């Protein structure tokens, strides 16, 4: 292939679209599939049972499909699946799934994974997510659409961050973080407000943002109300609001509990 550098090591069994570009000193394993328009700039290692879609750009020293950092892993043929149009920057690591989890680590479409960010085994990163430098996801974490995670943020295992959330830098998320809100803090991590700026930029109406602000006040400002009663009140308000209905569903389906 003329668009593969002479120093790259590509296993003959790998499935590589004709217009994939593979730069110097890259390594691609036998069970890897690379879609059209994807670029490996240099020194990229992709191994394991890994499928990468179209038009992804992967920067130097990224490592994708390596075994998970899980002592229970015994070499099972678990997977990594990555969609289209992602930017994966320097030293990003994405590990394969485990048989004790989903069996696959999934990254969707149009995500920006900045330098040194880490996606552990069995995670789901959906679409249009921004993970800033040194963000680390423990195993089995789900990051929903349009989430922004500030630099050096960590998310502990089995937790979720709801869509359109914005998390400030140097934060540690130990419980499920609800959609549409902002949060920050390390030992004192807390919900701060509605992500009004982000929602406005993405076309949410003023009415919807007002409804979410009222929901925030009910959940985080009103004194003396327990979560069960707050959810019941939100459920009544959610009949005419898809966003409130989604917020209620997120809270009600939480297994670890939400940041409160």
Please characterize this protein's 3D structure:
Helices cover 17% and strands 27% of the residues. The protein has two domains: 9-143, Hexapeptide repeat proteins (UDP N-Acetylglucosamine Acyltransferase, domain 1, 3 Solenoid); 199-252, Udp N-acetylglucosamine O-acyltransferase, Domain 2, CATH 1.20.1180. It has helices spanning 196-201, 206-221, 227-237, 242-252, and strands spanning 9-10, 15-16, 21-22, 27-28, 32-34, 39-40, 45-46, 49-52, 57-58, 63-66, 79-82, 87-88, 93-95, 104-107, 112-113, 118-119, 124-125, 130-131, 136-137, 142-143, 148-149, 154-155, 160-161, 166-167, 172-173, 181-184, 190-194. With 260 residues, the chain is α/β, with parallel strands linked by helices. Strands 3-6-9-12-15-18-21-24-26-27 form a ten-stranded mixed beta sheet. Strands 1-4-7-10-13-16-19-22-25 form a nine-stranded parallel beta sheet, with no helix packed on it. Strand 26 (181-184) and strand 27 form a beta hairpin. The radius of gyration is 20 Å and the shape is elongated.
Structural class: alpha/beta
**Total number of strands:** 27
Radius of gyration: 20 Å
Distance between the termini: 55 Å
Could you estimate the helical fraction of the residues in percent? 10-25%
CATH superfamily of the largest domain: Hexapeptide repeat proteins
Could you name the ranges where pLDDT drops below 50 across 5 or more consecutive residues? none
CATH structural class of the largest domain? Mainly Beta
- Average pLDDT, rounded to a whole number, is 97
For the biggest sheet, the summary is: 10 strands, mixed
| Approximate shape | elongated
Residues in β-strands, percent: 25-35%
State the CATH architecture of the largest domain.
3 Solenoid
